[in-house]
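Supplementary Note 3. Input sequence used for the single-chain structure prediction.
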Amino acid sequence: MANFFLDNKDLQFQLSHPLMQKIVELKERGFAEKDLYDYAPQNFEDAMDSYRRVMEITGEVCGDVIAPNAEGVDHEGPRVVNDHVEYASGTVENMKAVVDAGLSGLTLPRKYDGLNFPLVCFVMANEMVARADASFENIWGLQDCAETINEFASEEQKQKYLPWVSAGATCAMALTEPDAGSDLGAVMLKATWSEEMGTWLLNGVKRFITNGDGDISLVLARTEEGTTDARGLSMLIYDKRNGGVKVRRIENKLGIKGSPTCELVFTNAPAELVGDRKMGLIKYVMSLMNAARLGIGAQSVGLCEAAYREALKYAHERMQFGKPIVKFAAVAEMLSNMRAKLHGARALLYETARFVEIYKQYMHISSERSLEPEERQEMKFYNRLADGFTPLVKLFSSEYANQLAYDAIQIHGGSGFMKDYACERLYRDARIMNIYEGTSQLQVVAAINAVTKGTFAEQISRYDEAEYCEAMQPVVAKLRELRATFDAMVARVEEVNREHAGYKDLHARRLVESAGHIIITYLLAREAGEAAEYVSDAKLFLKIAEANIAAASTAIANSEGSDVDLIQEVGAAC
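The predicted structure, written as discrete structure tokens, is reproduced below.
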């Protein structure tokens, strides 16, 4: 099989971004550990060499082990035995392979047996794992729960749990309940302090928990008696070795069937409080969810890569009317648009990962020492970008995963509807990606403030001020026209919304997606100056952006404030 890193020039390109110099220096604290650990890098070049070598190992495991197991895992799936999950045999092989390769604890500090790699590398590894098998990415990728422990838990808890993650322990986020899906403030699983046992005890039910029988679970629970809102919720760590949790069932899902989605029953399950009481949802889950959304972005881009490759391969092999179907304009156009969307989503993914990485590193440094004024300003700057770009990348990448999986089947024709081809599984796997960790509609709610408060507009201006190669000058000129259209759309929506509350909500998705299309085109135009192969991607994505922004602009121009009342009336009548 192929090495999923070495066969992907786009991944290698993203790893060489100029901001990596700053990221490495922040992550390594000026290479302070070079004399403490024999595997700590001595300098920037040494660090980058380590990253590339580990990404190559990841690519090899994905190509040689995880991808060949994907179909078998999809058919076999996990099962409940004696109230606990037993993975499919292929999943067990996958787990052994990634642990043996040393790919656990990728981003964790070395003092907890981690590799201390930047988030960018973890996102890249997640993408490759998802390309091999999206369902296994849901199991392996949840080790990012350990980052939440690293950020907010006590040193004693870190020493107890993080080396276990580095050794291969699996994780889970136990958040949702039968009556609390997206509305996490309604969570009612109860945490009660036991004086006799000197621990918190969890009682209640959690539902739709990905990898719900993981070794370590971060549980959102109600610690404040008599409360019914977010202010009564805290975050706790549950250790599977202590017992008290049974898997009632594994959901029978449309896709990602290798990943156990569990309903859990907690009965006096011992747990440890993380951080401060009453901050579970307000602080810790928000951090956890942002990390998860970036993870779904990586998962979605990985699936986009798999779908595009399946479609391209079939289009070259399938003969019709004496020639391969890739020679037909209709198919060639579909493939070209698939490639542009794939590379656009990936460009947005790694831009977001870099923003998140720099903000997170300054946050960690601030717990070690006081930040200098310019460092504090920089942390705020990247925090603002991370908050805006994270829901944006989750929105675009998950929607594109569904579009590319759809197109892959279309290119396969009737064969794509059969289980003989991988695109059938990809199509089923993709469907959850714009639903879990916040639906596309919720990503719009999270991102619209970046439109109305100017975060996206300011970053677009920064992109516009950069230098672009000659081939991209017409693209940049057209982007400036699209920016003017976008500004006019925002102005109209804000004006009408002052008289008709809810008008902004009605058009929020159009505004967010318009900003995203402009941003992605700028990112591809920037990349075109460094590698000629991105020139066609930028030009093609510009056409996608133009069509979408034109439709959004027309819809807003033809919409009145009274449309809000009309839609509400129709909704009420339904």
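The first strand starts at residue 79 and ends at 81. DSSP finds 18 helices and eleven strands in the chain.
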